[in-house]
Design a protein that fits this description.
By secondary structure, the protein is mainly alpha-helical. It has 16 helices and five strands.
Length: 363
């Protein structure tokens, strides 16, 4: 066997995984980095990365952009993987890699639903997955932030939810909608029944950060650390080899929202993240100041939050078209129907507390 054959020997990838887990990076990051490092090695005919340099890295990134035509964000992920490989695994000098230009991402406006479209979508979603969708729209959380929510991080008295280790590993506080208090209490009862059954069967443990698990034995069996939205199936943790109950998988929510959008006959591409975009836009429409919204969303820079000002219930840049000003003087517009109604204020929306999503059984 060729000692430089990194794809046949598990040693290189084992070192990558070890370095990732030492830094407490997520399983998704581990999977992505390992995948890109494999592709890099295969692209260069299985040469070991320590025998390659700037020319090979640039060739690989250029191949992704020019031949594979990947998006800038995908190319940047590949670069981050190689940066981690050389800096944190091989411990090789890499000023040349830091100097490689970052691919520029296109600045695109987010997809935002109107209030009527949100109501149409949520009316198509029920059960636990429907409750998650309501929670994402009502709090502005990202999908994984909602799914990783733990019992201890809901404060019913203060009407708050603490989002732990959001994007950028930052904690933040967001609001708990009044109409979701009772549905969330019911969800906690269902989750506790899972927990108590697991304990009775000797497996009632969930994943907790390694440092805390080492310091506080049995913490993973505590109800306070249990998932608010546990999966109905137990599975084996691939890292620890322990049977645990994971939270609901994101694909389940994504599929439910996609199918709900189809049933609601929405023409826009709808994903769970669109509910976060809609939360932000509708709060701005209701008069929430941009700094408060920045804190609720967990944005590092207010410039990121400013993107939601593009749809503040007014056309274009918030000005009236000159054609609208003179339309009454143009015969073809005199008999035209009135202007299309804009979004209503959130306070005018009917209550949703009695909606099936708030009381249906766990799906």
């Amino acid at each position: 066997m060729n000692p430089n054959d990194a794809t046949r020997s598990p040693k290189l990838l084992d070192l990558v995984r070890q370095a990732i887990r030492l830094r407490h990076l997520s399983p998704a990051t581990e999977e992505a980095y390992v995948r890109w490092i494999k592709r890099f090695v295969l692209f260069h005919e299985k040469r070991h990365p320590k025998d390659m340099g700037a020319r090979e890295v640039e060739a690989f990134l250029s191949h992704l952009a020019m031949d594979r035509m990947v998006s800038p964000s995908t190319q940047n992920q590949a670069k981050a993987s190689l940066l981690f490989l050389y800096k944190d695994v091989l411990e090789a000098p890499l000023p040349w890699l830091s100097d490689i230009a970052q691919a520029r991402r296109a600045r695109r406006l987010p997809v935002v639903l109107t209030l009527e479209e949100v109501v149409s979508l949520l009316n198509q979603l029920n059960g636990t997955l429907g409750l998650i969708a309501h929670l994402l729209y009502g709090t502005g959380m990202r999908l994984m932030e909602g799914l990783r929510l733990r019992v201890k991080d809901i404060d019913f008295e203060r009407r708050e939810i603490i989002v732990r280790e959001g994007k950028g590993f930052k904690d933040r506080v967001t609001l708990l909608p009044e109409v979701l208090i009772q549905p969330m209490r019911l969800q906690l009862r269902r989750a506790r029944s899972f927990h108590e059954r697991d304990l009775a069967e000797g497996v009632g443990e969930v994943w907790v950060p390694e440092g805390l698990a080492a310091k506080y034995k049995g913490l993973g069996r505590s109800w306070a650390w249990h998932w608010v939205f546990p999966s109905h199936l137990r599975s084996v943790d691939p890292r620890a080899g322990v049977t645990r109950r994971h939270h609901i998988y994101p694909e389940s929510v994504q599929r439910a929202v996609r199918e709900g959008s189809r049933r609601a006959d929405l023409s826009k591409p709808v994903t769970p993240h669109v509910l976060r975009h809609s939360f932000a836009t509708h709060l701005l429409q209701a008069g929430t100041d941009i700094r408060t919204l920045q804190e609720l969303l967990g944005h590092k820079d207010v410039e990121t939050t400013m993107i939601y000002t593009h749809v503040l219930n007014r056309g274009g840049k918030g000005i009236q078209s000159p054609l609208d000003r003179v339309s009454s003087q143009i015969p073809r517009f005199r008999s035209a129907p009135g202007p299309v109604s804009r979004d209503r204020d959130p306070a005018d929306l009917p209550p949703t507390a009695g909606h099936p999503a708030m009381s249906a059984s766990t799906s």
